[in-house]
Each structure stands twice: as structure tokens, then as C-alpha cells.
From TrEMBL:
A GO biological process held by the record: phosphatidylinositol phosphate biosynthetic process
Reaction(s) this enzyme catalyzes, per UniProt: adenosine 2',5'-bisphosphate + H2O = AMP + phosphate; 3'-phosphoadenylyl sulfate + H2O = adenosine 5'-phosphosulfate + phosphate; 1D-myo-inositol 1,3,4-trisphosphate + H2O = 1D-myo-inositol 3,4-bisphosphate + phosphate; 1D-myo-inositol 1,4-bisphosphate + H2O = 1D-myo-inositol 4-phosphate + phosphate
UniProt cross-references to Gene3D superfamilies, sorted A to Z: 3.40.190.80, Fructose-1,6-Bisphosphatase, subunit A, domain 1
Enzyme class at the top of the EC tree: hydrolase
EC numbers for this chain: 3.1.3.57, 3.1.3.7
Alphabetized PROSITE patterns for the sequence: IMP_1 (PS00629), IMP_2 (PS00630)
Cofactor: Mg(2+)
Binding sites annotated in the UniProt record for Mg(2+): E74, D117, L119, D120, D247
Protein name: 3'(2'),5'-bisphosphate nucleotidase 1
InterPro entries: CysQ/Inositol_MonoPase, Inositol_monoP_metal-BS, Inositol_monophosphatase-like, Inositol_monophosphatase_CS
Organism superkingdom: Eukaryota
Keywords assigned by UniProt, alphabetized: Acetylation, Hydrolase, Lithium, Magnesium, Metal-binding, Phosphoprotein
Length: 309
């Protein structure tokens, strides 16, 4: 695209490079061996040096170029001087070259909200389950997730030394999704992906009610959405509080772009305005196809326990 790209295209192009930078930070901290782990609310809710540095890098890099956007990050960090080496100024040229969907071409910075999870799957990160880890940057307008960037810092790590580590995928409504090969679970197989470390009876009952042929238990909301769009799972079912807006904004944008859907257990969409509460308190149900089937299978006990916002 010649001339001056739209604000939202510049923001996505920046977010792409910033997510890659954050992924590099996450790898560097792991390789240093000094993770700096602290418990936030308990043993299943951890924060590491990688979470802290990656969030600083993302938030400062984006706010420096887009001072009027609202950025909401997972980690509650003290304001401090950021090292210049954490700043990413690049913008992905391939994104700037694309034409902005007409409905978003006039958006102003102050109309956009960015939801950031600097390291989704922290517990798995500390345990060496590195393919579960993602960096999530979601962009919302009018309460809706319209664009998202997901970086997988350790993509290909199983291939060992010399492998080309990491990948970045992105998507925008009305434009498309890039950086992965869209695939569906074959035929009528129902493969449900759900939480690895935050399960309870409600979660298990809801998964069972879907009558799955197979259940996968992995960490990270971003990772589970990737499973949906790459044909490894047909539904992500999490009948519990615990997931937050920064976990779902970027993945939902990419999922919606390829025709999928993410809702609460009642089938209602979540909103991503700057003022909403951060918790997805009515659970998460995400699918690439056949969303209505999965919604119809949610047990009454789940619907009663998890009230919509």
C-alpha cells in the first residue's frame, strides 16, 4: 500500500515485530537459567522474569509509537526506566503493504484497545513444556477483537540444536490470517482441548458432555486456539473462571478471521472495551466449526454455576 498506511495497519505491523522481540526475550531468559519465578496467587499462577521483561518491551515499544492507545497487560508492574535494548521500533513491511479493510481505515489511536499477555502458559514455561508458550497481542475496537498477533517463541524446539526457533502468526477481520496453514480435524471426530492445570469437576463434566472421541490437556489459551486452527482439536472447552481478556483477545481475532468462534459457555461474545472486567467469568468455548453443537451440549449445572457478564 503506497502513501500513509492506516493507524490500525501500522499498529498491527508494529505488534508483529514487538511480539517477535518479546519471543526472543522469553527464549533468552530461559537459556540464562535464571527464571526469577514468583507466585502471584498460588502455585498455578506464576510470574517469571520473562513475563516482566516481555511485558515491559511490548507496552513501552507500542506506547512510544502510539501514545494514545489504551494498553492493558496481564502483569501488574511498577513503572521504572526501561532499558533501550528492550525497545522494538520495527514494523512488518508485509503488513504495511496490505490494504486496510474499509471499515477500519479511519480508526484513531484513542479508539483502539490493546490486550497483552506477554507470556501465556507461564507454568508450562517453568516446567519445560515449551510448545505451550505464546506471546499474545490483541487489538480491539468497539469492544470487539479485530486483530491479533501470536508469537510461539519455541516453535520447532523439539527438533533440537540448529532448528529455526519460533514463528509469528497474525490475523485481521476483513483481511485474512497469515503465518500458519489452516486445517480442520478430519470428518466428524470431536477432539476437545482443555486445561492442563486448572481443572475441577465442572470443567471435567462439561468436557464429558461434549462426547469427545479424544481429550487433550495442554497449557495456554493461545496454544489451544492454535490447535483449533491447525486441525489438532475441534473445540476448546473451559467451564471455569480463570481465563482473562488478554488470554483470548488475540486468539479470538485470528479464530474469527478464519470463520471460527469464541464465546462464553452461554454462547455470548466477550467484550474487549477498556472498561470491562478482566476475568472471562462465564468460561470459554471456542471452535473452528459447529459452535452451536458444542453450545447445545453444555450441561445445565455449568450454565447455573457460570453466570454471563
Amino acid at each position: 500500500m503506497s502513501g500513509n498506511p492506516a493507524v490500525v495497519m501500522r499498529l498491527v505491523a508494529s505488534a508483529y515485530c514487538v511480539a517477535q522481540k518479546a519471543g526472543a526475550i522469553v527464549r533468552k531468559v530461559l537459556h540464562s537459567g535464571e527464571l526469577g519465578i514468583v507466585e502471584k496467587t498460588g502455585a498455578n499462577d506464576l510470574q517469571t522474569l520473562a513475563d516482566r521483561l516481555a511485558q515491559q518491551s511490548i507496552c513501552v515499544s507500542l506506547s512510544r509509537h502510539f501514545p494514545k492507545i489504551t494498553i492493558i497487560g496481564e502483569e501488574d508492574l511498577p513503572s521504572e526506566e526501561i532499558k533501550e535494548e528492550l525497545i522494538e521500533n520495527g514494523q512488518a513491511e508485509e503488513i504495511l503493504q496490505k490494504s486496510c479493510p474499509a471499515e477500519y481505515s479511519g480508526l484513531k489511536e484513542e479508539e483502539l484497545v490493546v490486550w497483552v499477555d506477554p507470556l501465556d502458559g507461564t507454568k508450562e514455561y517453568t516446567e519445560g513444556l515449551l510448545d505451550n508458550v505464546t506471546v499474545l497481542i490483541g487489538i480491539a475496537y468497539g469492544g470487539r477483537a479485530i486483530a491479533g498477533v501470536i508469537n510461539q517463541p519455541f516453535y520447532n524446539y523439539q527438533l533440537g540444536a540448529g532448528a529455526d526457533l519460533g514463528r509469528t502468526m497474525w490475523g485481521m477481520l476483513g483481511l485474512g490470517a497469515f503465518g500458519f496453514q489452516l486445517q480442520e480435524v478430519p470428518g466428524d471426530r470431536r477432539i476437545v482441548t482443555t486445561t492442563r492445570s486448572h481443572s475441577n469437576k465442572l470443567v471435567t463434566d462439561c468436557v464429558d458432555a461434549m462426547e469427545p472421541h479424544e481429550v487433550i490437556r495442554v497449557g495456554g489459551a493461545g496454544n489451544k486456539i492454535i490447535q483449533l486452527i491447525e486441525g489438532k482439536a475441534s473445540a476448546y472447552v473451559f467451564a471455569s473462571i480463570g481465563c482473562k481478556k488478554w488470554d483470548t483477545c488475540a486468539p479470538e481475532a485470528i479464530l474469527n478471521t478464519v470463520g471460527g468462534k469464541l464465546t462464553d459457555m452461554h454462547g455470548n461474545a466477550y467484550r474487549y472495551d477498556a472498561t470491562v472486567k478482566h476475568m472471562n467469568s462465564a468460561g470459554v468455548l471456542a471452535t473452528l466449526r459447529n459452535h452451536d453443537y458444542y453450545i447445545s451440549r453444555v450441561p445445565q449445572s455449568v450454565l447455573q454455576a457460570l453466570k454471563s457478564d
